[in-house]
């Protein structure tokens, strides 16, 4: 006898195998979606963290501080009280003392970063309360270390370190 078609056992077997394949495919797709999301969050965190570290470093390099003072809490004010500038008329480098020092203020308060009293916004992240400033002095050199920890919406922590140093100098006698 010549039978055409599938038996019930063959159909059930095919459905079981198809179900297993669909389940595996679903797990794989889900895994890749979660991995892509983690990579996107990590990439954005790196962009945000490196951006603030670079900005503060560039600001301090531009300022060329000669001294600093601490304010309340996690707060420091960096100051440049004088500089040496080229005078075109005398063709000499001369000491210029500022009536008011040029200041640059960094502060961490209430899980926020303030630069010159303006709130710095992290895009999609908040600043962890574990973020810290530390300043050490050694032989007229000031070593500034900032540890930024930013936190994603899913509570992933991303840590960024910034170091800067300068020589503390008093205004020279003119």
Explain what you see:
The chain is an alpha+beta fold and 174 residues long. The chain has one domain. Helices cover 32% and strands 43% of the residues. The protein has one helix and nine strands. The chain has one helix spanning 8-63; strands at 67-70, 74-87, 92-109, 112-115, 118-120, 126-127, 132-138, 141-151, 157-167. The strands form two sheets. Strands 1-2-3-4-5 form a five-stranded antiparallel β-sheet. Strand 4 (112-115) and strand 5 (118-120) form a beta hairpin. 10% of the residues are buried.
Summarize the structure.
The protein has one helix and nine strands. It has one helix at 8-63, and strands at 67-70, 74-87, 92-109, 112-115, 118-120, 126-127, 132-138, 141-151, 157-167.
Query: How many β-strand stretches?
Result: 9
Arithmetic mean pLDDT: 92
Specify the helix fraction band. Answer: 25-40%
Largest sheet: 5 strands, antiparallel
| Strand residue percentage | 35-45%
């Amino acid at each position: 006898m010549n039978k055409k078609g599938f038996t019930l056992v063959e159909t059930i077997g095919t459905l079981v195998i198809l179900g297993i394949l669909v389940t595996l495919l679903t797990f794989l797709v889900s895994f890749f979606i979660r991995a892509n999301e983690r990579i996107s969050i990590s990439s954005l965190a790196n962009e945000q963290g490196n951006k603030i570290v670079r900005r503060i470093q560039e600001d301090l390099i531009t300022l060329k501080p000669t001294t600093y003072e601490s304010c309340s809490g996690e707060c420091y004010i960096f100051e440049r009280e004088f500089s040496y500038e080229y005078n075109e008329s005398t063709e000499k480098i001369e000491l210029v003392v500022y009536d008011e020092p040029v200041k640059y203020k960094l502060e961490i308060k209430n899980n926020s970063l303030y630069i010159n009293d303006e709130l710095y916004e992290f895009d999609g992240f908040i600043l962890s309360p574990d973020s810290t400033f530390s300043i050490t002095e050694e032989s007229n050199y000031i070593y500034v270390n900032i540890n930024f920890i930013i936190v994603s919406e899913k509570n992933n922590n991303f840590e960024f370190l910034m170091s800067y140093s300068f020589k503390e100098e008093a205004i020279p006698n003119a």
